[in-house]
Amino acid sequence: MAKKSFVLDTNVLLHDPGALVAFADNEVVLPFQVIEELDKFKKGSDDTGQHARQVIRTLDRLREKGRLVEGVPVEETGGSLRVVLSGEPPDDPNLQSGSADDRIIGVAYRLMQEGQPTIFISKDINARIKSDALGIKTMDYEKHKVDFSHIYLGYREVQVDRPTIDRFGSEKAIDPPADDLQPNEFALLVDAEKPDRQVIGRFDPHQGKLVALRFGTNTYQNVSARNPQQQMAIELLMLDSVRLVTLLGPAGTGKTLLAVACGMQKVIAEKKYEKLLVSRPVIPFGKDIGYLPGDKEEKLYQWMQPIFDNLAYILRTKKTGGDGGMDDRIQGLLDAGQLELEALTYIRGRSIPDQFIIVDEAQNLTPREIKTVASRVGEDSKLVLTGDPWQIDNPYLDSSSNGLSYAAERMKGLDLAGHVMLETSERSELASLAAQRL
């Protein structure tokens, strides 16, 4: 079988520098235009800049094996890598010489015309559409993607008989009703004869039993669950043995509110952690916030407004005592060191021990960026990732390739991880109806 030539777009390498060695036994082709674009990104201090530098260093290492334009072997894959001088695009009115994208696509087009089995790989949807229109076999970069249509929900419904539900209610722990339950997966036990009679259990991997909820039905910081999935979320957020929690769901399902309320309970009331650290990606990830007015805290206020809204809701309904307005109460938490707001731009290089960490809007992070965040988590810390996979601002991510969906799918099966897909909007009657009808 003839080796295929995979022509990589620049955005693929900026998304995952490991793409250079991700195509086993085949040829990776880099148009010269890609090298020039990497040079523009290499000075950046964000993840994009780091990825560009990593690719350039790899190319420099491979250069020692021979001339890149003639092709060099890649030991990790058994394939090869070749840099192709872009030259002028083919004589096609649809490709313009002044367009960097067209020059990159033009390399794949020429290889195809020469009879070489060629596949163009790009994270840019428009580039994929253009290359496909030219007859080039075109694909998204599939590594780090999950099948979102079958993503792990974190729970399942199981029909059981009434004696099983009665026994679970009295004993609080029974043998799992299914053989393939994941650690910390929930089972919604439904009475086969009376479907409105339901109870929730969590599969405890240490006991090997389905156990009753300890925290899910309780109220924390005057916030309580309004549906079964929220009960599951609270259970995971309050369990100290679960160190990583992923909460996915559309707007209004309570992901951030539940995470913040449980975080405040753990930090302020129970003093399990020293600090509640809340962070959101500055879109796009790593972009400087220097253009906003004021100092760092004043700049972050613009990005953290949704977090302040949730804090205000909790403090408004919670009898905290003392004087002062809502802003004063929040500022008091900041001044006391119990609450910290941080942009993900500055999280690399830190070690974060003994903290309850919430990363909101995590669907805008790539799988590698999620790995960067998780690798910062120090001893005795808990990491909570929340987000809406249907609402992504990063142009090169979708519901299947974003870091939040990837983490939820890849971390299932681990004793220290838990996940719940929230589905019901509880923000308000209007918000719920709008989500359904608009």
Radius of gyration, in angstroms, nearest whole number = 25 Å
Intertermini distance = 51 Å
CATH C-level label of the largest domain: Alpha Beta
Question: What is the total domain count?
Answer: 2
Percent helix range: 25-40%
Count of extended strands: 17
Any guess at the CATH architecture of the largest domain? Answer: 3-Layer(aba) Sandwich
The major β-sheet equals:
6 strands, mixed
Instruction: Report strand order across the widest sheet.
Output: 3-4-2-1-5-6
CATH superfamily of the largest domain: P-loop containing nucleotide triphosphate hydrolases
Shape: globular
Low-confidence stretches: 284-289
Structural class comes to alpha/beta
Overall mean pLDDT: 87
Strand content: 15-25%
Which fold name fills CATH's third level, the topology of the largest domain?
A: Rossmann fold
**Number of helical segments with 4 or more residues:** 14
Overall description:
The chain has 438 residues and is of the alpha/beta class. The chain has two domains: 5-139, 3-Layer(aba) Sandwich (Rossmann fold); 223-437, Rossmann fold, CATH 3.40.50.300. It contains 14 helices and 17 strands. The strands form three sheets. A six-stranded mixed β-sheet has the order 3-4-2-1-5-6. The chain has a six-stranded parallel β-sheet with strand order 14-13-15-16-12-17, sandwiched between helices. It has a five-stranded mixed β-sheet with strand order 7-9-10-11-8, with helices on both faces. A hairpin with a 4-residue loop joins β10 (198-204) and β11 (209-212). α2 packs across α3 and α12 (367-374) packs across α13. The longest helix is centred in the first third of the chain and has 17 residues, at 47-63. The radius of gyration is 25 Å and the shape is globular. The termini are far apart. 42% of the residues are buried. Mean pLDDT is 87; it is low at 284-289.
